[in-house]
Design brief:
The active site is at residue 393. The chain contains 19 helices and 19 strands. It has helices at residues 4-20, 56-67, 72-86, 136-141, 151-162, 169-182, 188-201, 205-210, 228-240, 243-246, 248-260, 267-272, 299-311, 323-343, 354-357, 360-368, 488-501, 507-512, 533-541; strands spanning 44-46, 50-53, 96-103, 108-114, 184-185, 224-225, 276-278, 281-285, 288-292, 393-399, 405-411, 469-473, 476-481, 516-517, 525-527, 546-547, 557-561, 564-568, 577-580. The longest helix is centred in the middle third of the chain and has 21 residues, at 323-343. The N and C termini lie far apart (54 Å). Glycine (GLY) binds at residues 393, 411, 413, 432, 435, 464-466, 486.
Length: 581
Amino acid sequence: MVSFTAERRRFLAAIALVAALCLPAGAQERREYLPPPTGTVHAVAAEHGMVVAQEKIGARIGADILRQGGNAVDAAVATGFALAVTYPRAGNIGGGGFMVIHSAERHEDVAIDYRETAPAAATRDMFLGADGKPDIAKSRDSALSIGVPGTVAGLALALEKYGSGKFTLADLLKPAIELARDGFIIADDMADTLPAIARRLARWPASAKIFSRADGTSLREDDRLVQADLAATLSAIAAQGPRGFYEGPVAERLAAGIRDAGGIMTADDLKSYQPVIRAPVRGSYRGFDIISMPPPSSGGVVLLETLNILEGFPMPEMKRGSAASLHVMIEAMKRAYADRARYLGDPDFISAPVATLMSKEYAAKQRASIDLDRATPWMDAPSATPPREGSNTTHFSVVDSRGNAVSNTYTLNFPYGVGLVADGTGVLLNNELDDFTAAPGASNAFGLVGFEANLPGPGKRPLSSMSPTIVLKDGKPVLVTGSPGGSRIISTVLQVIVNVLDYGMDVAQAVAAPRLHHQWRPDVVRVERGFADDTLAALRERGHEVIEPLGQTSANSIAVTPNGLLGAPDPRTRGAEAAGQ
Ligand code: GLY
């Protein structure tokens, strides 16, 4: 068991590392988020279909597919591949993620799990140092941290099973190939990320070259980013399907690049990769159905446990942002995140009491343990500065005119992953295996503690927090949401849902409203600016340790209303766009 002192030390070290990867001072994403005044945030309206994504070229490519008669899955696949080119911080083909689909056409709700897997040579102690203690240089900063990428297989599977049939994989890859081959102009938000990442990329010349000018300095705003090798890799996928990535020259180059960098992934690992179609987790909240991502994401289970606890409190009558409503939300989060740490992992390897955790009876017991006047002390709490990056993962939401909806979150883990591009592939590789627990009681880069259920193992998927979610009323989507932000993803999705369903907020205001976060350990409440001072004082009086700021998230969401679609690109980050038609 790892002591709290060691946990605190590692949490601080992780924060220092992640902070070093953050955007430079002055970049908007580094500024603390200040919610815009009420009445100044407006949703973007559309009648027939919409894509809300973190980068505008990718969003518009998806909307264009909708315009051409594609369904939400076609659009999501096109956007997913496009963002691998235009949003290399997190859009990817070298990482993995999750897609939750409401298919009105097939009367089906489904989850596509394309999470990365650990290579066959992975061992449970692979991230321990010679002293037997977790070594974060191995799990976050080395080629050992690279999981077998799932994105190509996952997007191809989604298209094959749930696409409209109007578009081939090659059709949907075409815009991404052109953008990689001909390049695109770098916007300010991306330009601001590159100097901070330069040292990390510089470890591998093939990586550094892509994002540098001829003089070796980082590309800047208005420079053109051309990714010829990535165009060739995407073309191989267009020509051969996923085999063009998982077998043959691309796979061999990926395996060689990873091996040369000290990793253990082989061409066989790539060839063996399989995405999985899973039943989403499903629950209810005040008459709405919530469908979200099952394990190996913790997102859906923690979200539903939290909502079930809150359902027994009169949230609608409690004033939004009041100390009373925030107190019960914090206490619910604390309990659900504790269960995450104790029980959840890859369902193909461990058996977790998921049904119990999501049951109304269990929530009633959890609710009964909440003292309305006092914070439940959970541990001898360390305080630390949170990881501030929010661009490590990216979420997009899609709705089409036929009632289909897609909620997709995918990631490289850290911004630009581990920073390695295998020579000749153009593929930025992830460092997702840091989401495993290096040793029982150890924490990952987001400070999330884990135990036996989430130790590394061959072929195993690390536990995630990504929570692509769709809210249904009478079987039809009313809200599509999700977010990046590591541990903060689940609490973000929770607050967007509560703001819309309990407080009747317009989706744009629900997304813009200040958020808070508690993840059990460390035992602190992180808050964004925008909560009233006397509310925070009242929380402190109840015994909560309340700390500003909260690391950034970005809940790009869509509400489906009787008057049409309303898109909410999150105002916390530059670049997000609601592209409608
Ligand atoms: N890498 C962040 C997550 O999957 O939760």
